[in-house]
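Input:
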Amino acid sequence: MLAVSNLSCSRGDLQLFSALNFLLEAGQIMQVQGENGKGKTTLLRTLCGFHLPDAGAITWCGEDVNELAENFYANLLYLGHHNAIKDELTGLENLQISAGLAGIKLDEKTAIAALRRMGLKGRERLATKVLSQGQRRRVALARLLVGEAKLWVLDEPLTALDVGAVALIQELIAEHLARGGMVIFTTHQPLVIAGVEMRRLELL
Amino acid sequence: MNQLSIGNLLLLVIRRDLLLAMRRRADVLTILVFFVMVVSLFPLGVGPEMSMLRKMAPGVLWVAALLASMLSLGRLFSADYLDGTLEQMMLNPQSLAVLVLGKMVAHWLVSGLPLVLVAPMLGLQFDMSPPALGVLMLGLLLGTPILSMLGAIGAALTLGLRGGGVLLSLLVLPLCIPVLIFGTGAVEAVASGLSVVSNLSLIAALLMMCLVFTPWVTAQALRISLE
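Output:
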């Protein structure tokens, strides 16, 4: 369970948001909304511990995330604007390495299955520099299929994806929520999860 | 799902960085060629006076190794920083310091070890005696990892800064002075028939100290740089 109480953040002298409160429980999904520059990304990055908040607390199951540190990261999957994949490596190598960095030992068969489900059949062993933007995003998103992180923090997961891939992501999120996972994300595209109430947090 | 142990994580990072270095071979070769060029310029510039060349050899080789290792430091974290991999590294469930240690080891294997291996060949241009060449290699073997580790702190602190490369050298080069003094001291000692143990032991001690502290310090510096 992720709890945010009285959170304030600023970048430089600019106050982005203050006195933010919310609670995210198992099986819940929340969309962070707001215009460009309202602090959506900053909020997500603060949840991951990249920024320290000016005031307020973020707790995971009752304990402060910055004190839990590594114990919290084991429950967290963060996907930012950058894909965190290397052009020189193949999709398969990229997925195995990023899973490894998340502490998961991923054998080749599972990794290939994950990439195939992401619609990259036949592209698993190609250097990612020859793939299109959307395909690279798919390689990055294949991380959603491996590991057992409870909390997904997704910053604009749908950029560069086509309609089919968006539907696939919706399916993955629905499965994750059904398993008792939590998702907090931002997007400027419509994203609908059938049968789940979409909570919305508006940053003003 | 299988969990990776700390040791496996360390190996994963080393293997990953070596694999990336293999796919970008030009980067590795430029460092080596730079080292060979700088060292070879001295006999050409100073002239074929054997006794003078012999005397300046350890200093020239060590300074060139120092400068060559500075060249590649800028890239140590910047590529991972730009494509977002560094963020993922910070979120690893073990320890960022272990990942940093892995990157340091890989950096040394790619840019430090080749210098150690070619140094004796270059030493011949300076008419160094075989025992002196041996001590030079041993000193570089112990000393170049220190350069990679101290350099990593500087690379982490200057991450994302414009013109970070020059600042990085200004930060790191003064810290490398002890290694330079003991490294050249060892070669001079063997040339004048003294024991090299004290100089090499001091470098080894510095290496141990760096192994313990620098990964942790670099990890903290990376967290600050990513804020």
